[in-house]
Amino acid sequence: PEMLDNEDHLLENHPRELTQNPLKKIWMPHKNSHIGHRRVCMTNCPTLIVTVGLPARGKTYISKKLTRYLNWIGVPTKEFNVGDYRRECLKIYKSFEFFRPDNEEGVKIRRQCAMSALNDVRQYLSVEGGQVAVFDATNTTRDRRGTIMKFAEQNGFKVFFVESVCEDPEVIAQNIVQVKLGNPDYMNCSSEEAIEDFMERIKCYETSYQPLDEDLDSDVSYIKIMDVGRRYLVNRVVDHIQSRIVYYLMNIHITPRSIYLCRHGESDLNIKGRIGGDSGLSSRGKEFAKRLRSFLEEQKIKDLKIWTSQMKRTIQTAECLGVPYEQWKSLNEIDAGVCEEMMYEEIQEHFPLEFALRDQDKYRYRYPKGESYEDLVQRLEPVIMELERQENVLVICHQAVMRCLLAYFLDKTSHELPYLKCPLHTVLKLTPVAYGCKVESVYLGVESVNTHRDRPENVNVQRSTEDALQTVPAHL
Amino acid sequence: MRGCSSRCKSTQNQGKAVCMTNCPTLIVTVGLPARGKTYISKKLTRYLNWIGVPTREFNVGQYRREFLKIYESFEFFRPDNEEGLKIRRQCASAALNDVRQYLTEEGGQVAVFDATNTTRERRDTILEFAEQNGFKAFFVESVCEDPEVIQENIVQVKLGSPDYTNCNTEEAVEDFMKRIKCYENSYETLDEVLDRDLSFIKIMDVGQRYLVNRVLDHVQSRIVYYLMNIHITPRSIYLCRHGESELNVKGRIGGDSGLTPRGKEFAKKLNQFIQTQEISELKVWTSQMKRTIQTAEALNAPYEQWKVLNEIDAGVCEEMMYEEIQENYPLEFALRDQDKYRYRYPKGESYEDLVQRLEPVIMELERQENVLVICHQAVMRCLLAYFLDKTAEELPYLKCPLHTVLKLTPVAYGCKVESISLNVDAVNTHREKPENVDVTRMSEEALITVPGHQ
């Protein structure tokens, strides 16, 4: 830039030249990446989430689910289960006697395990780039929580407590059956023995349990979840990430249900090997829609909600089902921008650099004037939130969208996500069980093209066309 | 479509609209006077309408003012004033009647019944009413004992109330404090045990603590999330567009062009303006388009890029002049003029879509304090409509000229707006709705309101 004027010379606020990052299409000053583009979590310091509650109150369930959610929305999160540390240390679990408050040896080991876990927390948050750590233990005394808060203060972490309080014997029994019987602690016991021992274990904590208190803990940030989400007490939410955590925890439930995910029936553009667009179903696609209807009827699902995108092919699929459905624009397929309706061969021909960049980092790569998988996740977050609120739902969507949703339920990393297999004419039935999700894949027996393109070996920008197109699936 | 959220469309052939809530919701405020019930009611109503949920508030105090005409003193509110009690009960009933009308016949989705509702008896009456009419009830209680907060409340919104137009400040404050006392003895706060079957949120000490009970559905969950994110700390929000861009001067919409020299001049002036404002801890947000980022670069301060602040996607019309849109897509152009809020560009977006994608921005703006948002014309219209409570009809025609900063400061129940032009010339990009919006209109009629450009 010319600087002929004195004025220009003196002005220090010359806007810096901008370049657009070729992968994510983000405008930045030169090669600087100091400018923050909107990440979900705007805390400047890491957050330590601390669970509180008697055994069998769902602390680990909440820890794992919350960790999965935060990682999916892009907040690096890790859970630290003190029970795991204890199992490492002890190797063999004998009985509840280990947890008796007067068992000095036991108390000593448990304190060491907690310290060891906190050490790893410090490592994760301060050294390894973690943003949130979930410290999963009973933490039932004010004394123990005081120790943790001191630790957090020394290390510059914000603390947020998540307490689960429940006295419903049925819920506790169900909890024990679902997750304790299969626990390594009880591998060599019968069900009755395990339950009996576990109930004694709970008793060991009960007398010293000091729940979070409105008055005594008025300066502490926390959410107290009562009776599996019937009631919540929320105190001193201090930032964005805590607000999102509270919102999430208030929307999840444990009522048994299933989520069905599938793509639209095969479309005319699918057959031609073209991506994106808004085409209608092929005749095989229509056949799939009919089979889908039969499948659903056989499943005899109670109060099934059906969601589609606002693209013709998902709506056509839903229309065959003969029941009401809701259209969500946010379920639309990833926007391929300038590459919309192209074949991979054409993308390679017209945009070989883009095609290579995409193979280098398929999650973060944004099509010119289009979207990235990373963008997709952000726009699908309200869908996930509503799926958590709902019970039985069928989501008829698209390949990239389905990959994102599946990654959330199956805790897949951003590296795995864009390569998850979501073939046409196949329904995935997801049923929450224990700490995770059972997946049943049901192929409805109607043939279709394959639209899955694996990552090729050569992702270099100078690769040959054959190398680039090596993994393109067949089409017309 | 009535009663549906902006994100869903009903399935035409089924006749049944698939909505966010299946039955209307009656939100009921609870709390002593000067606890922010009306502030919450108005703000919540504004938010719900903006996200596309038809909502209206019904303030019983207003019904009382209609009825009584002249407010004499706190004596009216004495619990032993039988005449007063009778009138107040009648006003509450009249308001509930209007609630029924709104939710059952006028297509309303949510009604906010704003009154003290401090006794369990009154709340039971309302619950009965809701049950009879098939409405879900959700209580919002505000509890606060901090005398400073209550004092500030009285100063901000009571002194200016019609009740106190003929009093001086001291008289008004004194009378109001006595008014509060009239309610205190009979106040039955929502109780964890006694009211465990009700759906409610209890807001304590202006948001320090919340008790949330039995949230039943999506709307209630969104209401709770919203209420937990708002605050009353004084602050200002600055809205402006990027500096004039290359495509702006050519009369072209959309695209991702850079700033013109005048646009760069604006960016410099913006920096100076911000310095003079001496804003504590200002956050700066931009979109991910070059022109807003270039503008922010001149501020020499950190800024955050939000993809969701990007300008409305004009799809096949991206980078066209209005004259070209008329030439190539005359039907689309006419449809847009017929319903600019709901109209979606082919392969693009509508204002309605924009609002949906901007909702997280609004939520975060509520959480934040001083923020400058450098965005785009359509985006700025949407954000402004939220703060100034504009309807879907008004929104797409709000004036958001280039090189002008709007400073929004919450005051009383609304928002003070100061418009500051930074005195750098720019093209006008505002196209008014033409008279003739018929699809058969002539080119001249379609283009009559297009602003001048190169």
Automatic annotation (TrEMBL), chain A:
One of its GO terms (molecular function) is 6-phosphofructo-2-kinase activity. It comes from the Eukaryota. This is 6-phosphofructo-2-kinase/fructose-2,6-biphosphatase 4b. Residues 42-256 form the 6-phosphofructo-2-kinase domain. One of its GO terms (biological process) is fructose metabolic process. Keywords: ATP-binding, Hydrolase, Kinase, Multifunctional enzyme, Nucleotide-binding, Phosphoprotein, Transferase. Substrate binds at residues 263-270, 313. It holds the Pfam family 6PF2K. It comes from Poecilia formosa (Amazon molly). PANTHER family: 6-PHOSPHOFRUCTO-2-KINASE/FRUCTOSE-2,6-BISPHOSPHATASE, 6-PHOSPHOFRUCTO-2-KINASE_FRUCTOSE-2,6-BISPHOSPHATASE 4. InterPro entries: 6Pfruct_kin, 6Phosfructo_kin, His_Pase_superF_clade-1, His_PPase_superfam, P-loop_NTPase, PG/BPGM_mutase_AS. One of its GO terms (cellular component) is cytosol. In the C-terminal section; belongs to the phosphoglycerate mutase family.
Automatic annotation (TrEMBL), chain B:
Residues 20-234 form the 6-phosphofructo-2-kinase domain. GO terms for biological process: fructose 2,6-bisphosphate metabolic process; fructose metabolic process. Signal peptide: none annotated. One of its GO terms (cellular component) is cytosol. GO terms for molecular function: 6-phosphofructo-2-kinase activity; ATP binding; fructose-2,6-bisphosphate 2-phosphatase activity. Substrate binds at residues 241-248, 291. It comes from the Eukaryota. CDD domains: HP_PGM_like. InterPro entries: 6Pfruct_kin (IPR003094), 6Phosfructo_kin (IPR013079), His_Pase_superF_clade-1 (IPR013078), His_PPase_superfam (IPR029033), P-loop_NTPase (IPR027417), PG/BPGM_mutase_AS (IPR001345). The active site is at residues 242, 311. Keywords: ATP-binding, Hydrolase, Kinase, Multifunctional enzyme, Nucleotide-binding, Phosphoprotein, Transferase. The keyword Cell membrane does not apply. In the C-terminal section; belongs to the phosphoglycerate mutase family. This is 6-phosphofructo-2-kinase domain-containing protein. It comes from Poecilia mexicana.
